[in-house]
């Protein structure tokens, strides 16, 4: 096998492995209502099960995110696969809320570890295609996991076990094959020191970060809400009992986001960020209309618009901030950016889950959506004011 063919095969294998981890992360979403019915827990508990996943993933990014720079890519990928396989076994045998929390916690840590090491390995192999694969694969993986899980729940036996068994088998094959890959980095000392969490935002990037942060928070908060409560919300608003609907909504959200990232990858960052803010505000507003009219068709159309806003907002925020860092500052800035993103992914969702106990799911959704719209429009106003200030400064000079 030529070196070019070997490199391409390694790129495909790593992309599929990353896709598998993210598919596993969204696979429980269509099953949440089954867990709720079988184990009799509230929406607040549901968001807790979801939230521990995101917090655990965040902890992995902060601690073991750079471990593969010291130990090599292959052993860290293998450990992440082993941890994820253990999480799949916990899901298969889950008969209580405690088991689900344990499974999601371990899964979150494994996914955080895998996201860091597989992302680095993809960049090692192909610095041209690696960034694009890193951007698209997580969204495609979440779409595959949610839709695949929905199909199995609807048409196959053992609805809360079969999907995890299939993922376990796929990861087992990947765990065996990963040792055949060429190692892309050599071992260097400092593995223990690398476990110490560090965050740094360079001074020249702080203004751009603050301007883009409201959009980034809004898109990730919407993503967290959708991946945890969207299936329950659709059932409550429309009366639909199909297991396919929840997974299909997540697939529409993530696939439209991936398509938007691919379509806008060469556009200026500020233009993309503005487009993301507009689409997100419009999409969330339409989702609220769908909730109160009970229209399933409008739900899907609104999700398509909101998902496009998710992709554009995330890409625009990322590209507005990261290029401002010097080479030795990028790792710290990326860590800070993802910490803020994942906090927005889980903390607002946890709050929403608790509020449903007092106000109900529909009223909580109204308040949650209103906050997201205000964040998106506020960011848009801030960006427009920044542009107006630049034009005035240019005209004076």
TrEMBL record:
<protein>
    <submittedName>
        <fullName>MFS transporter</fullName>
    </submittedName>
</protein>
């Amino acid at each position: 096998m030529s070196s070019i063919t070997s490199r391409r095969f390694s790129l495909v294998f790593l992309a599929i492995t990353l896709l598998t981890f993210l598919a596993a992360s969204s696979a429980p979403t269509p099953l949440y209502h089954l867990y709720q019915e079988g184990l009799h827990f509230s929406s607040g508990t549901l968001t807790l099960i979801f939230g521990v996943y995101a917090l655990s993933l965040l902890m992995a990014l902060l601690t073991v995110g750079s471990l593969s720079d010291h130990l090599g890519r292959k052993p860290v990928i293998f450990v992440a696969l082993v941890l994820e396989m253990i999480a799949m076994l916990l899901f298969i045998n889950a008969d209580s809320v405690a088991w689900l929390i344990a499974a999601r916690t371990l899964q979150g840590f494994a996914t955080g570890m895998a996201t860091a090491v597989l992302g680095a390995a993809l960049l090692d192999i192909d610095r041209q295609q690696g960034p694009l694969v890193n951007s698209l694969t997580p969204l495609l993986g979440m779409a595959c996991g949610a839709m695949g899980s929905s199909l199995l729940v609807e048409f196959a036996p053992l609805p809360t076990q079969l999907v995890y068994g299939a993922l376990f088998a796929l990861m087992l094959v990947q765990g065996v094959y990963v040792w055949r890959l060429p190692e892309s980095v050599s071992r260097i000392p400092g593995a223990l020191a690398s476990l110490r969490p560090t965050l740094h935002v360079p001074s020249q990037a702080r203004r751009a970060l603050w301007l883009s942060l409201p959009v980034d928070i809004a898109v990730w908060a919407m993503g967290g809400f959708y991946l945890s409560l969207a299936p329950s919300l659709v059932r409550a608003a429309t009366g639909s009992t199909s297991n396919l609907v929840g997974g299909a909504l997540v697939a529409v959200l993530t696939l439209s986001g991936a398509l938007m990232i691919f379509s806008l990858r060469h556009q200026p960052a500020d233009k993309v960020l503005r487009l993301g803010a507009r689409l997100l505000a419009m999409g969330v507003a339409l989702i609220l209309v769908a909730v109160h009219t009970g229209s399933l068709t409008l739900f899907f159309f609104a999700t398509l618009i909101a998902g496009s806003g998710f992709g554009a907002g995330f890409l625009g925020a990322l590209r507005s901030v990261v290029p401002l860092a010097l080479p030795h500052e990028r790792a710290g800035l990326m860590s800070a950016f993802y910490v803020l993103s994942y906090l927005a992914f889980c903390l607002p969702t946890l709050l929403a889950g608790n509020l449903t106990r007092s106000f109900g799911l529909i009223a909580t959704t109204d308040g949650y959506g209103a906050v997201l719209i205000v964040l998106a429009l506020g960011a848009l106003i801030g960006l427009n004011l920044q542009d107006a200030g630049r034009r005035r400064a240019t005209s004076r000079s």
